[in-house]
Amino acid sequence: MKGLTTQWSARPRILCLLACLLLLALPLVFTDGTITAQTSTDLSGVRVAVYNGGPFEAGNNSRIALRSMFEWMAATVEMVEPEEIRNGALTSYDILVMPGIPQGTYYVELGQDGIDQIRQFVTNGGSYVGICGGSLLGTRGYLGFFNGSLQYPIPGVASGTHLTQMDVNHESTGPDLADLPATFSILYWNSGFWHADDMSGVITIASYPQNDQPGMIASRYGYGTYFLSSPHPEWEEGDPRDGTTYFDGYNDPDSEWPLMLSVATWLVDASPAPPPGPDFGIIGIVAVGITIGAVVVGVAVFLKRR
């Protein structure tokens, strides 16, 4: 036993300890950072950027209502200009909100640089909320978060602008919607439903009862998340708390803001920052495995020689 103790000197013990630490660190290095639980109850401490652009009265009122809605959620809300987005301002925010202005206007104001900045923001862990034209911007051909399109018309739903009923998805695998009312009335403005050849991984938030197709969806993109709504949940028709008088002639019996709070808290909770260190990929995994193997073999050879 004395000879064995002599062979087990300080140096090989240190080498073996390093090898063990490397093995223990692998789950931390290669974790995908996935968070599935919804833990937040409001957006305290969350910074929200609402896009400020487009020469449209409806778009201006949409962003005012969206700002009011996110302030009601206890978020810190700021308006952000297209030029600021192009210059990298989104790194200071957690959520980017795109109001109801035409998606073509967004593309003109942002340019390809701005589009790339938004895509990178979400890829790196940010959250995107798109309403009406802002939701269309999130589809393929533009930002590409949702690899599908918006379909029209909805059978049994008249065109134009009016309130329509939607069904809440109480079985949602993302935002916890189980305690919300089963249905709500929402402003429909020639809205549509979302469709893709592959809807796996896309979470239905609310759907039209006329065709059971989603008008609101959410999902993950990269390390981030997105929410797209063709109809307008931001306006509180008949209630001044949205900061506008837009569509106050309608008598909306309920509010979509609690639904949006559930969605927004999930967006943030399910958007962890990328794991620390480089994104190793398969080549990195092999390289680290070879390194650990070399350390272990080296320790074994060293011990044998001693």
Question: Please, could you describe this protein's structure?
Answer:
By secondary structure, the protein is of the alpha/beta class. The protein folds into 2 domains: 2-31 and 283-305; 47-269, Rossmann fold, CATH 3.40.50. It has 8 helices and 11 strands. Strands 2-1-3-4-11-10-9-6-7 form a 9-stranded mixed β-sheet. It has a two-stranded antiparallel ribbon with strand order 5-8. Helix 2 (10-29) packs antiparallel against helix 8 (281-305). The longest helix has 25 residues, at 281-305. The chain is globular and about 45 Å long. The two termini are 15 Å apart. The model is unreliable at 1-8, 14-36 and 278-288 (pLDDT under 50).
Order of helices and strands: HHEHEHEHEHEEEEEEEHH
Task: Report the uncertain regions.
Answer: 1-8, 14-36, 278-288
Q: Give me the CATH superfamily of the largest domain.
A: Class I glutamine amidotransferase (GATase) domain
Gyration radius, to the nearest Å?
25 Å
- Tally of helical runs: 8
CATH architecture of the largest domain: 3-Layer(aba) Sandwich
Helix content: 25-40%
CATH fold node name of the largest domain: Rossmann fold
In the sheet with the most strands, the strands line up as: 2-1-3-4-11-10-9-6-7
- The overall strand count is 11
Number of domains: 2
What is the averaged pLDDT score? 85
- Overall structural class, as computed from helix and strand content, comes to alpha/beta
Strand content bin? 15-25%
